[in-house]
Recover the amino acids of this structure.
């Protein structure tokens, strides 16, 4: 199919190494991306299972693809792009935001969602973003369980502030 696309005038191909039967489960087969790259002369963009900047570098190294595309790996992790950029420049700086920056990003995202979609839709849909943004943080299970049941945006924002205050206090104790 990739050769047909190239012969038909495609200027690039994006390949996701997961079958339709897999849906969103299972692991991506990066060897499919490598086989396509070895078959065509046009740029090949690899996609799938990139959750950290190291994954992007590893995919490019293992497949020879020209670029990577990030999908679900950016959910709750929009700073992954900065991390990939820094890693490409051989920077050792930490790309992840501080707790304060993370909270500000969450609030800005929510504000933008309300601006573009209206409060009613944003208040309903933003819970999933709160769950993604806090995944992996200390005590996030309890926070996610609480917020996951809420429907009132004011209460969710208050819970977000409370949660990040506790995180900041825990972080301060660890560093002193």
């Amino acid at each position: 199919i990739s050769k047909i696309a190239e012969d038909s005038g495609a200027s690039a191909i994006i390949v996701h190494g997961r079958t339709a039967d897999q849906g969103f489960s299972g692991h991506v087969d990066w060897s499919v991306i490598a086989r396509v790259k070895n078959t065509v002369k046009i740029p090949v963009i690899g996609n799938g299972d990139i959750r950290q900047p190291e994954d992007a570098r590893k995919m490019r190294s293992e497949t020879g693809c020209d670029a990577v595309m990030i999908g679900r790996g950016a959910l709750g992790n929009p700073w992954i792009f900065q991390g990939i950029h820094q890693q490409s420049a051989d920077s050792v700086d930490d790309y992840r935001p501080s707790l304060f920056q993370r909270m500000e990003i969450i609030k800005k995202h929510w504000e933008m969602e309300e601006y573009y979609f209206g409060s009613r839709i944003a208040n309903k849909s933003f819970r999933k973003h709160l769950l993604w943004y806090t995944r992996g943080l200390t005590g996030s299970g309890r926070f996610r369980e609480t917020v996951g049941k809420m429907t009132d945006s004011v209460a969710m924002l208050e819970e977000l502030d409370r949660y990040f205050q506790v995180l900041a206090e825990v972080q301060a104790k660890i560093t002193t």
Residues 10 and 124 are 40 Å apart (CA to CA). The mean pLDDT is 90. Residues 153-175 form the longest helix (23 residues). The two ends are 58 Å apart (CA to CA).
